[in-house]
TrEMBL record:
<dbReference type="GO" id="GO:0005886">
    <property type="term" value="C:plasma membrane"/>
</dbReference>
<dbReference type="GO" id="GO:0022904">
    <property type="term" value="P:respiratory electron transport chain"/>
</dbReference>
<dbReference type="GO" id="GO:0016491">
    <property type="term" value="F:oxidoreductase activity"/>
</dbReference>
<dbReference type="Pfam" id="PF13085">
    <property type="entry name" value="Fer2_3"/>
</dbReference>
<dbReference type="GO" id="GO:0051537">
    <property type="term" value="F:2 iron, 2 sulfur cluster binding"/>
</dbReference>
<dbReference type="InterPro" id="IPR006058">
    <property type="entry name" value="2Fe2S_fd_BS"/>
</dbReference>
<dbReference type="Pfam" id="PF13183">
    <property type="entry name" value="Fer4_8"/>
</dbReference>
<protein>
    <submittedName>
        <fullName>Fumarate reductase</fullName>
    </submittedName>
</protein>
<dbReference type="InterPro" id="IPR001041">
    <property type="entry name" value="2Fe-2S_ferredoxin-type"/>
</dbReference>
<keyword id="KW-0411">Iron-sulfur</keyword>
<dbReference type="InterPro" id="IPR025192">
    <property type="entry name" value="Succ_DH/fum_Rdtase_N"/>
</dbReference>
<keyword id="KW-0408">Iron</keyword>
<keyword id="KW-0004">4Fe-4S</keyword>
<dbReference type="GO" id="GO:0009055">
    <property type="term" value="F:electron transfer activity"/>
</dbReference>
<keyword id="KW-0560">Oxidoreductase</keyword>
<dbReference type="InterPro" id="IPR012675">
    <property type="entry name" value="Beta-grasp_dom_sf"/>
</dbReference>
<comment type="pathway">
    <text>Carbohydrate metabolism; tricarboxylic acid cycle.</text>
</comment>
Length: 245
């Protein structure tokens, strides 16, 4: 178990009883109750739905409440450390405010001016497409694992991370979003302000997502394609040239 604060820390060894059907969070609670009363851990639902209990187990970003102890062999040492991409507050608790800063930078859905609420109509296919992204529980495991920021603090300024590039992609493919009519270009903003170009589609984000959202294939790659289509579309190119004159 990693114990420490912003000044530094160390791994401490504990031996804890395990019962059938338990998850890593149960073991941490037993550890708090019996040997380390001051151990800091964040959690809420214990059902994989609140996204609070994110940490790293044997170096892999995971939810503590959804990782069964039966995943490990009897002789295994289970190493639990805080999310590596974010500053430590104490023990397993990290400061994830980077994510909230990025969330605030993404303009929300812009309702179409000519339709009143209740008059919106969409194809079922379009509803299902964004429904997948709406399953996000904001655990930030994808943000933690992405190599663009995992070991590169300096990239945080210009990279929103997979969770928020996915949000941009979701709104960009929303048939009723009227952002462009308001002069708000989601493709340019994803590419130029939120670092879509930094993503080299390693898919690590998709691999760790506890909701099984296909972040790379269904959000990031299509968004990259739309950005490239527009950049290399001869009509758009000609239009930009004429406008610049
Ligand atoms: Fe977590 Fe998946 Fe949402 Fe990323 S996209 S924050 S991994 S639920
Ligand atoms: Fe990072 Fe996911 Fe792209 S892990 S590099 S955002 S595919
Ligand atoms: Fe809510 Fe683990 S405690 S996701």
């Amino acid at each position: 178990m990693w114990r420490g604060d912003p000044e530094g820390g160390r791994l401490e060894d504990f031996t804890v009883e395990v019962n059938e059907g338990e998850v890593v969070l149960d073991i941490i609670h037993r550890l708090q109750a019996t040997q380390a009363g001051d151990l800091a851990v964040r959690w809420n639902c214990k059902a994989g739905k609140c996204g609070s209990c994110s940490a790293e187990i044997n170096g892999r970003p995971r939810l503590l409440c959804m990782t069964r102890m039966s995943t490990f062999e009897r002789a295994d040492v289970v190493t639990v450390t805080p999310l590596r991409a974010f500053p430590v507050v104490r023990d397993l608790v990290t400061d994830v405010s980077y994510n909230y800063t990025k969330a605030r930078e993404i303009p929300s859905f812009v309702p179409p001016a000519e339709l009143a609420p209740g008059e919106y109509r969409m194809q079922q296919e379009d509803v299902e497409r964004s429904q997948e992204f709406r399953k996000c529980i904001e655990c930030f495991l994808c943000q933690d694992t992405c190599h663009v920021v995992r070991d590169h603090e300096e990239n945080k300024q210009s990279f929103a991370g997979p969770r928020f590039l996915m949000r941009q992609a979701e709104l960009d493919m929303h048939p009723l979003d009227a952002a462009e009519e308001q002069g708000l270009d989601r493709k340019t903003s994803a590419q130029e302000e939120h670092g879509l170009g930094y993503c080299n589609i390693t898919k690590c984000c998709t691999e760790v997502c506890p909701e099984g959202i296909r972040i790379t294939d269904n959000a990031l790659i299509p968004m990259k394609e739309r950005v490239a289509d527009r950049k290399y579309d001869p009509l758009v190119w000609l239009g930009n040239k004429i406008r610049r004159r």
